[in-house]
Amino acid sequence: GVGKTTWVKLVYENSEVKKHFMFCAWIVLTQYFKTGDLLKDIVQQLYYVLREPSPEGIDTMSDHELRVEINKFLQQRRYLIVLDDVWNNDAWNTFKHAFPNNKEGSRILLTTRRSEVAKNASIESPDKVYALNPLSSEEAWTLFCRKTFRSNSCPPHLENVSQQILGRCEGLPLAL
């Protein structure tokens, strides 16, 4: 991809960011996720920060009960939740009610490859959608040379094949 997860991970792991939020959780939503498993994961990550065991009966809680537990836990607390790789609006809608809009400066960061998901998730703040673009030809060439040849240039006898490889990568850093 263009590096969405990498950028968000840099923000999430930044020590200043960690100090700003009382609670942080990172959730990866694969294309075929199990709602209950991910809700339990969120609960466990939140309680882990307090060094407390997860609530009794977490394994038998319904999805609704888990959402209520998360919402209750996060009330009155500043939190950062990352939902990584959200594939569709249904996935976002499954989780959004678990997170209270508690006016404490909390944030939810969501990565997605689909612009309609980003727009739906940011209805209250449409100016907070950031699109990452592929690298320019020059940026892709520089990155490719640094990674492949550990230099800013390519050996002349490999330039043609290097350009063919770059063409296939379409400026996507992960492909380079």
From TrEMBL:
Protein name as it appears in the record: NBS-LRR resistance protein
Any matching Pfam family: NB-ARC
Alphabetical UniProt keywords: Plant defense
Molecular-function GO terms, alphabetical: ADP binding
InterPro entries named among the record's database cross-references: Apaf_helical, NB-ARC, P-loop_NTPase
Lineage: superkingdom: Eukaryota
SUPFAM superfamilies reported for this sequence: P-loop containing nucleoside triphosphate hydrolases (SSF52540)
Gene Ontology biological process terms, A to Z: defense response
Residue ranges of domain NB-ARC in the record: 1-153
